[in-house]
Structure formats: structure tokens, C-alpha cells
């Protein structure tokens, strides 16, 4: 069986990672790739290491009215542009939107695949979760559902590699020399990622995520994302680890570790790592979550969602071990 | 006037940075450098760019009973080893201990120079603060003393460059390939840095630092340290900034910025940057502090302390602007 | 069909990369992993992202007399130690030696798989080429065999990521802080890699590689290797590119590009990239070769050799596209 | 004595480094800073760590007809734009042009300060040498003038940090994620830097630099530049080192080392390091040169030239030791 797949947004980091994963997928056949900045060039010009079978595919200019026959479309468009662009895609084409415009939107299923796979199977419009929410919610879900922490006053201190900010930065903000040897907090008390997390925390806990604090930081590395989450609860470390091991039993991509996870453990893979350190005397639980922001935080998660909606094994094309070192 | 200066621990990063600063100091004359791994070699073998005037100084094997005539000794020894080593230094030699053994210890003055310079003048035994406490306390002191935040339940999420972990790592833990493209939390809920911070927060606030949480992370960069500190208080951002600007008025090394500070702003300098983002509706104040972990977090601070105890202008040898990019 | 595979030297970078590739190989079944520093621990302790099927495999202490039933052994031992260690492996076990002790040694086949695959099929003792020679010889072979350059007076300016120097450096030489933001030539006019290259250049050209110059440099990146090779010959750029395209026609892993290749193009893959720039008026040909030093420069090449000696398709387990960015 | 100094091109890396050095210069007083992208903002907005005395200086829009009273202007403008811009600067203002437009141009003195300081004293229009030529010519000058190597068929394999390519790259080419973990040759057999080197090699040797080859590479580090230069000559390593030590005797910024130099040795300083490895049997001399591309390769060299034309001690403002680590 061959499933005909397309990517729009091939020039960006999310689109490029989707290409890498789809190229190695046993059931997906890439037949369409669109991207504004590279339109008209064969894939191999843009991706010199692309597998031979895809080398000659010519990058198309995006036009939702002129798509070839497709079973699934992966969309990796800048936030704010995908709503309109994807509205014109025929209903017969399943969509996984890696971008941020359709999360918790009517008609779209929020694709938190490691936690709610059953909600995703059989759907045709999937909104991939954001990279920060994925790492955070994967770490918190077992505690919230077990009542080991409360949903209020959670503090998320998040750190991401520079690829999370997108391609090189037309304004030089993410140039190598400016970004290397530099660590930058940004977006303090802004709310761009907050509704997605508040809504999901409320769904997981049945309570209100009031008082949520989220502080992202840019770290001088290409890939990788870690959240350090400070929660209120009187569980022990062992209780947290046990809850997570139970919650994710049988789930293929989430690993619960005794040690604090490091971003390199996940690099290039679709894995999530979670761990915990708790001090009941202080009513404190520290939850940690690690993903590759382009893997489980974007394209890997999208392929996992695509597997689910195509009724394929969830791990198809996603079994590659992380790169080390 | 020439002040005769020595360094013990010249082979480590703190000792090396002390050498760089002392080499450019208008009143200090380096006459002694000791270090186990380099003993017997001229300084220029170990530091190929050392100024000509110091090139021929031969690195000594450390022996506190055989010191030359010295006015000040900078000690940058591994934690746990300086107490005994420095006890045998003659009383006539002033000491600034960059290491951690003498902080809040009887007979030693805790050298938080940007905050308490008057406590330091005239003393002869100074314990340099730790790099994490410096960044944290510099950010918090204005708020604690003004009562804008409470001393309890403070959460410090700290990020440091790899030089904070010391030389290359005999066990390979800080090898380039293992550390690059990797972000690592460590030491969760351990207490090595806690007493220093708890004691000082209590002194600054007059209250108890109960519930303090401190989580350090290793960031793949050589230098730089940022703390993101989550506090309880109902001040506004403007009130916090104003308090800090008032508190540090006339102080030469602390800069209060409207924007979140970045580690590169301080690189190679003795500057501290602090900023704040507050949400009174949530009783939340986020304080941020940036230093170069080897500058204000170690050797720069030590030179500042040495200036104070020698009754020199506080900025002598420390006016170099940060490296950019 | 399942082929029973072992790795000795699992703790090193070459062994770890072999593990990653074998874990995704469709015909290899890892049943044995040995490594001194990790002996007694399950693989997942050392490699937190290892696939579930291998997670519980316990790392053995190396003992060639106590091997389990194996079809192939991959050896990634420090240079100078594998000759003795591998001499005691039973004849029934095929060996691919990633280390340097058996190159151009009697009884062992020099496994330059992209160039001489037919010499490798059916053999049982394969010496993997060194990472520098692979990149160099892959770039030069088409020109040498076509007589477009002469074999004498070739100058190889080589640049490798730090993983090429092995694990973190017990003496701190490859510590992050010492190595980051640093570029280091080393081993000038030394001869450790020379005989392998001289012998092979002579074999390819039928002439003498007299006057060969080889200068390696350590570049502050984890993976990647580029050689810039200055040769004497009066071919044009087009002639060189055409010769290489002809020479590697049908070969799956070598890509000839019009643009100068970049190390990131190969990262995490078994690909080699070669390109050329020539100026016949100056009798000059510049040949460039790029590999991932741990992929085609070590473990990827070893798996390719193992495929050849097991009469499997050459690309089994090696089709993963490079990581970007 | 205070010398009134201006900088045009303050927003770029060269201009920023000039600012850092001038801020610490004992005789220079910065009274003017111009830069298109930052015009109208105080310096401290753009450079948060600038010394207090300069913090309030407002960045001007460049207008050569509306300059304040200046003794010297440092120009760091994009190549191709400075010829016209600087032609309108009054004759009374001395100029050091860090950019490339005036090298070996009539009416301008080529400011190779470590080699020809006497040619620079008393002049008013100085063309700073390019970063690659500085490193190359500093390494070669002692050998060329002594006849230890010939001027023909020299091969320069050059490696520079990313800051050498200028600010972050409007087109994303030098974005962090694209550039990190990547090593890129570029500009093969192009001639942009060649005339400057050919002319100077001819002047130093009295012969022709025919057959010169120059291959630059971008290395994933912010600062630092190394050239590895392959020359023909039958000198020994010792003869080369001796020649260089003699040639640079008494010169303050050039260091001749037995070991191959590393880029980090020069980081943040105005130093040049040179070393040699020769094999008379092969008629081969390898010369190596290291500079900080923004220091001796740009702004440091410019300050040195400014010292010379102002008849100040050559080392004023340039004695800072390199940053380590």
C-alpha cells in the first residue's frame, strides 16, 4: 500500500524534517512538495542529501486549487497564514497542520498523540501541538490526571534551540555570530503559547490552569527543547515516576527516566523524555520534559498523527534512534 | 604605587581569568602564580597570549609556607581544598578566595561587592560569592530590601555556560562532543548552593528564605550565566525597575534594563544586568540576572573585592567593555 | 533471515554510531555489546534513546574467548589495541574493524566500499578505512584513475569535527570550554595517516604518491569532515565533475555536486559528497570531499562493508537522510 | 591630550569592535558614531555594555558633510561603498578605512602595521589590510624577505569564524541553525582577495606571486581566523622560526610559537601568532598564521594604525590579553 503524501512549507525547518522522515517511511510516498522560496528547483538542489528516489521532484509553488491527487498533506506554514491557505484544500485530502493556527479550533482535532491517540484515529484534520506544549503536557499529564499536582500556579521555564525560531532570521536576529555564546529569555508574560497550554491542562485535570507562567529562552544549539516545570503538590519523586510509568505503559515514544533528561537524548528522534524531582515537605514537584523541537515538537509528531489517521502502526517511519553524539 | 599580587590555581578557568584581569590592572603587579598541573613552566607556555611583562614568570608549585612577599593572594582552588590551604597563608597577605569554602564563615567577609561594598573595605579575608548567588542576589536585592517581593518560596531557574563546571572534565562529562548541542539540568533539590543564598536572602529581607528552589542547567556555551527567578509579590514591572535603578544608583557595574538581559551582553566584563517582568494580578514577579560566570561570577568580582580592600577605585582594571559578538 | 551481530567498543563514538545504525538495520540483530567503561549496565542506561528491543541488553566485558554465537563483530577499539584483541576471535565470526590496526595488513581486506565493493564481497576480515582517507580517496579516485591528476605532490588540508578525536578527553584537551570557539591544526608532518593514503593513491594511480602532505585541523563542531585537496593536473572543472559522475555512476552513496560541499549535507548519513574546482592554466585541481566522520568515516562505512560480506543489498540500514538543520 | 574620534559603520561587527577598543583607549575620545540601522538611538540601546561615559552618545545618520570636529574617523562600511562615502570627508580628518575599497589605491597607505610601521607614521589616509591577507602576510613576510620560500605557487587554505561574513545574513545564509555544525568552503578560484595578496607578496619578495591559490572556509565559531599556507622552499623548521623571531624582534603584537597556533590564543586581542613546519627533503614549508578576524584582522589593526598616524605608542588601547576560555 502506498499513501500519497505532500508537504507545503518545504523550505522551513519543520518542512525539511518532515521530508527527512517521510523519505524513510515505509508506507508514505512523497509526490508533492511546495515552498515559496525554492519553487521551481528540484528537491536535491535544496536538500543535497535527499534520497535518490525523491531527488528529481520539483518544488511547486503552493496553490491549494492545483494539488495533485493526495491522501495526506503536511502543512508547515508560518503561524497566521495556514488558516486561509488550508481552507481551500479539498476535503478528500487529510491534513496535519504543524503550524499553530488550528489548535483547539472547531473542526480540527488537537493531535497530542502520545496522550490521546484514540481521539486522533479516524480524523481528517489534525492540529499538531506546539513544541513547548508537547514537552510540558507530556511531563504534566500523568500528574494532573492522577491529582498529584494541582492545575494552578504552574511555572514553566522553557529552553529551546535556535531552530525553534525558524530560518536564519531575515533581520539578523538569529544570525550565528549574534546567537552563538548567547542565552536569551524572550516573550515574558506574553500569551502566544498560553491558551493552548491552559486549555489542555484544564482538560487533563478537570480544573483551572489559573496563574500559569511561561518563560521561554533561546539556547545556543540547533535542536532540542527542555521544559523545567515547577508545580504545587505533595507527591514524592517515586510517586511521580510511578504515575508516569503507568500512564505511558505501552506507549512507544515516551520514556520516563530516573535521571534528569538531557536534550541530546532525543536529538533527531520522535522520543519524549520525562522525569521528576519532588519535595513533599515543600509541596513542590519539578517536572522535566525533553523533546527534539523539530521531531516530537514538530515533524515527528506530525508523522505520528498521520500514522494514526491512516490507521497505520503508530511507529512507522519513526523508529530511528537519536543521534549521539 | 605597586601592589604585589599572587594567584593560586592559575591552571583553572577562574585563575586564568584572574590572570587576564590582573595583567591589565593599573595598580596590581603579578609576582606569583601557582598551579599544580603547570608548575615549572613559564606562564607563556600555558597562556600563549599573556602580556610580555608576565611571559617569563614561572608557575610555582603551591606552598603557603614559601610564598614570596605578597600584598594580596587570589585563590581559585577546588571547593573543599581551600580551607586548609589558605589557613597557612601569613596574616600579612590579604586573601580573596574565589572558591566556595569561606562563604559565610567566621573570620571571612562575604564579598558581595555591588551590594555591600562598605562591609568589604578594610577587611583582609574576603570570600567571593558563588556565580549563581551573585546573579540571583543582584537581581533580588532591590526587591527584597524594598519589600516588593517576599523572601519565601522563591524559585531560581539557573543556566550556566560549561566553563562553570570547570576544566574539560577528567571523566569526559564535559567533553565537547558530549556537551555541544546538549542542555542538561543537574543537581535538582540538592543543597550545595542553597545555604549561601538562603543566608543572604534572609539578611537582605529580614525574613526567612523558606521554600527556596534552585535548579541549575548546563548550557552549550563557554561563558555566561542567566538566572530566571520566580517570586511572589504584587509590585508592577515599573516599580521593580525603579527600585533597582534607585538601589544601584552610582554603582558602576550593575545595569538595569527594560529588556530581558542576554548573556552575551556581559561576556568578558565585570557587568551585571538585571531586569524584571511582573504581573500584580497574579502576585508574580520574574527577576532576571545576567553575569559572565568567570567575570562578575568569579575573577572580575574578586578583583573588585581586591580593589575595595586595597582602598583603590572600585573599577580599576575592570572597565573593559564586553566582547561582541 | 537474521544475522547475529556484536559490537566491541560500544562506549566510544564509533561504537555508539554502529549501535544506532544496527538498531535500524533490517537484517542485523544485535545480540552482543561489549565495552570496558560501561560493562554490566543495560544498554539503555548508557543510551537512553536506544530502541526498546535492545534496551535490556547488558553490556559485556570484552572477552574474545567468551563470545556468544555471532555472525559478525564490529570492532571499534583504540588504535593499537585491536590487533591482539581480534586475533583471538574465532574464524567463524566475520569482523569489520573500524579501528586503524588492520589497514593494508595481510589477511585483511581494505574496505574502501564505494570504490572497490567487489574486493570486499565474500571476505571475512575487513579493515575499515580511516575517516580522513575515505574523504580524500573518494574525491581523488576518479581523477587518479583517469589520469586527470598526478599522484605526486598532493596537499591535503583536512578539517574534522571534535568527535574525530574520540571521547571527551581524559586530559581535558577536548573539553567543551577549551575546544569551543577554537580551531586547531595538529600533527603537522606526522605520518600516522600517511601510509594508508600513500598506498591507496599508488594503487589507484599506478604511480607514486611521493611528496604527499597531510595537515589535519580540529574544528569546533561535533560531527563532520571536509578535505580540501590541492593537486597538479591540467583538467578543467567540468572534466573532473564528469569523471567523478562516470566513476560513481550507480554507486548509491557518493554524490558529485557542482557546488563546494558542506559538512552538514552528510550529517548522520552514510553519504560522501565530492566536488572540484580546476584551473588548467595553473595546472591546478582542487578536489573536495565531505563525509560524516562517524558515518561514512566510521560506522556507516562499517555497516556498508558488513552488508557486502553478508551478500546483502549494500544500502541496508544506511538509507537514512542526513539531519538538517 | 585627547584625540577626537569618530566611527562610521557602528552597527556592523567591525564598527562594534572598534567601539570596544576605542572605549578603552587612553588617548581617544569617541565623539561621533554613525550607522544606518541604528541611527537616532543612544549607543547603550545598541550596546548594552558600553562604558557609562559613552552610553548617551546618540548614533548619527552618516553624512560626511555634517561631521563634527574630528581628528580621526574609523570607517567600517560594506566593500564597494566606502570609496564614494569617504571621498567627501574633509582633508583635516585622518581616516583609517577598515573596509576593502582603498587597499593598494593611490593616495592611500596600505596599513600593514606589524610589517611596515614606518610607512604608516605621518600619513592621513590608511587602508587597513583584509583579515585573510593580514594572517597570511604576517606568516609569510619573514620567509619571503629572507628568501626561505619563493613567491610563486603558494597555496593558502584559510578558515574564518562566521563574524567574518558580517552581520546575521539578511538572506538567512548565516543563520545559527544553518551555520552551526557546518563547515563550508566558498569562493574557490575567485579573485576578490587575491590582488591584495599578490601585490604584497611581490613587494615583500621582489618576485612574482604567480600561481597563488586561495581557498577560504567558514568555520562554525564566532571569531577567529587561521591560514595554513603551503609554500615551496628548502628551509628547515628552525630556520623559519628563527627568521620570524628575528623579523619580529621588538614588534609588540606578533608571536612566533613552536607549536601550531590555535585561534583561541588570539581571541579578543590584537595579537598575531605564526608558526612553521618544514620538510626540506620535500621542498615544503607550511606557514601558519592566527588572528582574531575582528581584532588584528579588522578593528584592532585599525586602532594600531591610528596610533601610528597620531604618533602615539603603538600599543595604546591594544594591550588587553586574549579571552580564555
Task: Summarize the structure in short.
With 325 residues, chain A is of the alpha/beta class. Chain A contains 9 helices and 13 strands. Chain A has 2 domains: 3-128 and 297-309, NAD(P)-binding Rossmann-like Domain (Rossmann fold, 3-Layer(aba) Sandwich); 131-293, 2-Layer Sandwich (Dihydrodipicolinate Reductase, domain 2).
List the helices and strands and how they pair.
The structure is a homotetramer.
Chain A: E1 3-8, H1 13-23, E2 28-34, H2 43-46, E3 72-75, H3 82-87, E4 94-97, E5 109-110, H4 117-120, E6 125-127, H5 131-146, E7 155-161, H6 176-179, E8 184-185, H7 194-205, E9 213-219, E10 225-232, H8 237-247, E11 254-256, E12 272-279, E13 284-291, H9 295-309
Parallel strand pairs in A: 1-2, 1-3, 3-4, 4-6, 5-6, 7-9, 11-12
Antiparallel strand pairs in A: 7-10, 8-9, 10-13, 12-13
Question: What are the main properties of this structure?
Answer:
homotetramer, 325 residues, alpha/beta, Rossmann fold, Dihydrodipicolinate Reductase, domain 2, 2 domains, six-stranded parallel β-sheet, Semialdehyde_DH_NAD-bd (chains A, B, C, D), oxidoreductase (chains A, B, C, D), NADP+ binding (chains A, B, C, D)
Descriptive notes:
4 copies of one chain form a homotetramer. Chain A is α/β, with parallel strands linked by helices. Chain A is built from 9 helices and 13 strands. Chain A folds into 2 domains: 3-128 and 297-309, NAD(P)-binding Rossmann-like Domain (Rossmann fold), CATH 3.40.50; 131-293, 2-Layer Sandwich (Dihydrodipicolinate Reductase, domain 2). Chain A is 26% helix and 21% strand. Chain A has a 7-stranded mixed β-sheet with strand order 8-9-7-10-13-12-11. In chain A, strands 2-1-3-4-6-5 form a 6-stranded parallel β-sheet, with helices on one face. In chain A, strand 12 (272-279) and strand 13 (284-291) form a beta hairpin. In chain A, helix 5 runs parallel beside helix 7. In chain A, 62% of the residues are buried. Chains A, B, C, D: Residues 4-123 form the Semialdehyde dehydrogenase NAD-binding domain. Chains A, B, C, D: This is N-acetyl-gamma-glutamyl-phosphate reductase. Chains A, B, C, D: Pathway: Amino-acid biosynthesis; L-arginine biosynthesis; N(2)-acetyl-L-ornithine from L-glutamate: step 3/4. Chains A, B, C, D: One of its GO terms (cellular component) is cytoplasm.
Amino acid at each position: 500500500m502506498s499513501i500519497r503524501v505532500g508537504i507545503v512549507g518545504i523550505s522551513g525547518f519543520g518542512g525539511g524534517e518532515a521530508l527527512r522522515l517521510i523519505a524513510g517511511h515505509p508506507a508514505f510516498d512523497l509526490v508533492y512538495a511546495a515552498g515559496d522560496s525554492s519553487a521551481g528547483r528540484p528537491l536535491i538542489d535544496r536538500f543535497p542529501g535527499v534520497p535518490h528516489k525523491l531527488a528529481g521532484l520539483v518544488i511547486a509553488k503552493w496553490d491549494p486549487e492545483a494539488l495533485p491527487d493526495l491522501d495526506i498533506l503536511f502543512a508547515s506554514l508560518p503561524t497566521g497564514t495556514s488558516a486561509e491557505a488550508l481552507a481551500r484544500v479539498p476535503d478528500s485530502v487529510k491534513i496535519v497542520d504543524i503550524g499553530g493556527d488550528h489548535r483547539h479550533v472547531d473542526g480540527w482535532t488537537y493531535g497530542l498523540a502520545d496522550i490521546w491517540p484514540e481521539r486522533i484515529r479516524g480524523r481528517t484534520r489534525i492540529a499538531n501541538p506546539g513544541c513547548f506544549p508537547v514537552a510540558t503536557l507530556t511531563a504534566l499529564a500523568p500528574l494532573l490526571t492522577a491529582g498529584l499536582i494541582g492545575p494552578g500556579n504552574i511555572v514553566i521555564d522553557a529552553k529551546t534551540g535556535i531552530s525553534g525560531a525558524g530560518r536564519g532570521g531575515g533581520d539578523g536576529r538569529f544570525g550565528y555570530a549574534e546567537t552563538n555564546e548567547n542565552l536569551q529569555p524572550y516573550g515574558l508574560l506574553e500569551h502566544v503559547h498560553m491558551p493552548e497550554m491552559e486549555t489542555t491542562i484544564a482538560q487533563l485535570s478537570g480544573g483551572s490552569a489559573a496563574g500559569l507562567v511561561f518563560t521561554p529562552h533561546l539556547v545556543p544549539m540547533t535542536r532540542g527543547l527542555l521544559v523545567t516545570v515547577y508545580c504545587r503538590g505533595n507527591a514524592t519523586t517515586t510517586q511521580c515516576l510511578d504515575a508516569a510509568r503507568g500512564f505511558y505503559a505501552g506507549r512507544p515514544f515516551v520514556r520516563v527516566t530516573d535521571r534528569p533528561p538531557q536534550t541530546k537524548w532525543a536529538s533527531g528522534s520522535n522520543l519524549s523524555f520525562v522525569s521528576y524531582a519532588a519535595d513533599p515537605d515543600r509541596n513542590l514537584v519539578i517536572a522535566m520534559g525533553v523533546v527534539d523541537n523539530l521531531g516530537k515538537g514538530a515533524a515527528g509528531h506530525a508523522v505520528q498523527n498521520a500514522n494514526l489517521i491512516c490507521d497505520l502502526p503508530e511507529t512507522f517511519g519513526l523508529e530511528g534512534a537519536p543521534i549521539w553524539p
